[in-house]
Amino acid sequence: MRRDQLEHAIRAACQIIGTTELIVVGSQSILGSFDETELPQEATMSVEVDILPIAEGNTETARLADLLEGVAGEFSPFDELHGFHIDGVDLDTAVLPEGWRGRLVKVQNKNTTAPSGNPEFTGWCLDKEDLCVAKLCALREKDRNFVAALLDAELVDAAVIAARLNAIPDVYRANRDRAAAWLSSRK
Q1: 108 contacts 119 by C-beta, under 8 angstroms
Q2: CA-CA distance, 139 to 157, in Å (whole number)?
Q3: Could you tell me the pTM of the whole model?
Q4: Hey, is 14 helix, strand or coil?
């Protein structure tokens, strides 16, 4: 995926759910920090954009996520036309460290402008190390490969990731411990 495709997804998702801002939580949120030309191939392979609607409560968030899936999800006309799709997610999708909202990366430019020219839509992407924490806590091989590629390219800081793993809520302790063990094994 390219940065311009992420920007298109942000604009489309905002229009679908009738909002001016949302959060990108999946692997494509790395495009908020880096252009695709700066990233290893493993970091841009996904053709889905995981969008977390900003809403009052998780019930409304889940409703809006379902709306996104229905209009622009996998195998939708949107997917067929653009070659990527939008996955609506809720607050339970990603395991994130305390303070993640304060580190979000803003994506807003001419490509996220409404057809009227104003207002602009905003995508808030996960900070690169917070993204790595979420990926490692998911405990899937593809997520470990994603993080490994960013580490190998020296685009993320292993020490910051390790510190943020310690800020994962205790309910996810097993995920945190496995993620920390994997990260330590890479040294």
Answers
A1: no
A2: 19
A3: 0.93
A4: helix
